[in-house]
Amino acid sequence: MIKTAFELRTIGNLLKDRRKDRGLSIEDVARITKIRAKYLQALENGDYSSFPSEVYLKGFLKNYAKFLDVNQKRALAMYRREREYQQKEPTIDNSNKATKALVNLDLTPGKVILGLIVSAIILTVIYIGTNINSILQEPELSISAPIELNNGEEGVFETSEDSIRIIGNIEVGSELTINGQQFETNNFEQFIKDFNLDDGLNTFTLVAESQFGKVSEISLKIIKEGNLTGTDEDITTTITPTQVTSAMNILVEIVDREAYVEVKIDGEITTANVLPVGEILELSALSKLEITTPRPDAVKIIINETDQTVEGSLTNTWELINGQVVKQ
């Protein structure tokens, strides 16, 4: 069978080649992008029936393409062409053969009953398989404001406002609780909730529970900067001689040459990519920062406006201990 150029170069092949060029496994990509390994494998294999809907498929495709530096518009265009090609692919018409075969069949009550039983068994197996897949999967949960987070992720946001608005989406049929309090969603399973903030650290734990008892969770930490009020004398008496901080404000800059950089904030990987010269990352950590790079000389790090030294070892770690930044 002669394959066309289109058949030889699908979006799945492109994604797989880019991933292998970077020396990453499916599990590595799943851990970094938070996209399940089975969906990544399905995209590479062109197995689009594995996705619950077209919206999920395109969303995962765009995120995977972005992670591998593949133009998202090009990825979607290749996907559309591939689906159009599959729909137009000719099929063998066996209608004449089937008609001839049916002519020679002797239908008896026993055969009819047997056929109905077999059909019922097949339909039952399909139904059970579909529902088991739903039962075993964690419900979808994400927020788009004040920052974007997906199921299983933890994020930090700083503000000087007295309140915060959390906007997100939850899978149809699931229940939403925030800090143990149950909330209603609209018909599109979207939620918009406002919360008052205390000075300092405010933690919001969002939990989605499916009708089968599966749970998804997002942890959002909001740091509210307190406002100093009162007379100059009051301020002088409340400020201690040792200045401490509740978070690490981090600036990562790539200098001289490009470098692969993996950044882990409070135990969660936020960046794992080859960054070009001049790229700047602005990050925030509550307790721990880990930088992994084979080119420490190409990475400049500033924490709380203080230059930090990147050693020659592969991983450098900084921790916030008693309000002070300490390099391990």
TrEMBL record:
Presence of the UniProt keyword Ribosomal protein in the record: no
Keyword field: Membrane, Transmembrane, Transmembrane helix
Ranges annotated as spanning the membrane: 112-130
A single MF term (Gene Ontology): DNA binding
SMART domains listed in its UniProt record: HTH_XRE (SM00530)
Pfam families, per database record: HTH_25 (PF13413)
Domain HTH cro/C1-type: residue ranges: 15-49
CDD domains the UniProt entry points to: HTH_XRE (cd00093)
Family matches, as SUPFAM superfamilies: lambda repressor-like DNA-binding domains
InterPro entries, per the entry: Bact_Cytoskel_RodZ, Cro/C1-type_HTH, Ig-like_fold, Lambda_DNA-bd_dom_sf
Keyword Ribosomal protein in record: no
Protein's UniProt name: Helix-turn-helix domain-containing protein
Source organism (scientific name): Candidatus Dojkabacteria bacterium
